[in-house]
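Duplicate of #3305? Posting structure anyway:
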């Protein structure tokens, strides 16, 4: 399959530039496009064959539901059986934006799209290209991240091309995304809204809108028998090919430990890398250091994370040590992705 490549020109009318991509979606094809979180791989959410094609292109487990993207909140009525009051409050507060809500579905969206579940995940993105594509195509767009399943999510069109060129119909290059972490997923089908995947919108943000809310215990538990409710949280994700280990503790101890491990690995002839903050990058010796951003700018850290995880593969790093990034607002989301990339290999000092 030849993958078409569309590059957005900000000086031209946006809807005209996405028309051909919209036609591809209408006809059951797959189009990768930018959102404010990561690039998504879109198909017609009502078309079971399109959803099957998404799973096949990504190599994604078929029990991992696809998020349905909409251009306007009024579209929710067409695919859900009920809209709880908490959902209305959250939509008013955070849509358009990096939030996905889980509703009880009606029969419009097939089970092939929802991973066999009787619920449907819905998001209203804020990115202008995503909005224009939905409006131009006129379809509900099912769209997981546009990457090979398990690899770091794509924050640039070139990441999509690396994984999916030749497997999908088209890629829309709208530049680098703004946030760099997937949306916060909130289940509103129960009495207490529950975060199933942490993201840019934090638990405190949710509580400020609806009062009582909680985090899925399966996300926070270190007990392997406590499984996250969201199927996607059960799988290893975002992982580079090299062995990634997170080191947590006081800054000086972390740096000393990593430097010691670098020397041990060098003695064995391994290519070693360090994932650090800008503040500590100069404290490491004899290893390639990737400074992901300042601890005073957690949004920079989030935006750069997946790009750096991919660079480890490009430069064939065999062993990677990462600092922990316990930032105040979205630190939990950053660490959730980093720990999954490491397969939960953590050294606590």
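Output from current build:
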């Amino acid at each position: 399959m030849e993958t078409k490549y569309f590059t957005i020109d900000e000086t031209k009318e946006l809807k005209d530039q996405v028309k051909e991509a919209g036609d591809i979606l209408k006809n059951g094809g797959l189009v990768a496009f930018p959102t404010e979180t990561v690039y998504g791989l879109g198909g017609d959410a009502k078309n079971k064959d399109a959803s099957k094609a998404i799973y096949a292109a990504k190599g994604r487990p078929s029990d991992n539901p696809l998020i349905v993207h909409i251009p306007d909140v009024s579209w929710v009525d067409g695919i859900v059986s009920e809209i709880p009051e908490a959902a209305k409050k959250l939509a008013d507060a955070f849509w358009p934006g990096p939030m996905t809500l889980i509703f009880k579905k009606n029969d419009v969206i097939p089970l092939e799209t929802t991973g066999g579940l009787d619920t449907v995940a819905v998001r209203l993105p804020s990115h202008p290209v995503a909005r224009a594509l939905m409006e131009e195509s006129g379809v509900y767009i099912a769209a997981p991240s546009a990457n090979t399943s398990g690899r770091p999510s794509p924050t640039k069109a070139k990441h999509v091309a690396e994984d999916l060129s030749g497997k999908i119909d088209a890629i829309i290059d709208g530049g680098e995304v703004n946030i760099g972490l997937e949306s916060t997923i909130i289940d509103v089908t129960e009495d207490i809204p529950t975060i199933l995947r942490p993201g840019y919108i934090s638990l405190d943000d949710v509580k400020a809108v609806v009062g009582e809310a909680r985090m899925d215990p399966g996300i926070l538990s270190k007990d392997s028998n406590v499984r996250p409710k969201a199927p996607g949280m059960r799988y290893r994700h975002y992982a580079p090919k090299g062995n990634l280990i997170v080191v947590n503790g006081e800054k000086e101890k972390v740096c000393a430990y990593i430097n010691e491990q670098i020397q041990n690995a060098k003695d064995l002839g391994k290519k070693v890398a360090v994932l650090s903050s800008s503040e500590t990058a100069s404290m490491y010796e004899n290893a390639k250091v990737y400074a992901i951003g300042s601890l005073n700018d957690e949004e920079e850290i989030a935006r750069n994370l997946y790009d750096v995880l991919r660079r480890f593969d490009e430069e064939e790093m065999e062993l990677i040590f990462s600092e922990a990034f316990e930032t105040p607002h979205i630190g939990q989301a950053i660490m959730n992705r980093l720990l999954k990339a490491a397969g939960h290999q953590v050294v606590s000092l």
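Confirmed duplicate; merging threads. Residues 251-267 form the longest helix (17 residues). The mean pLDDT is 93.
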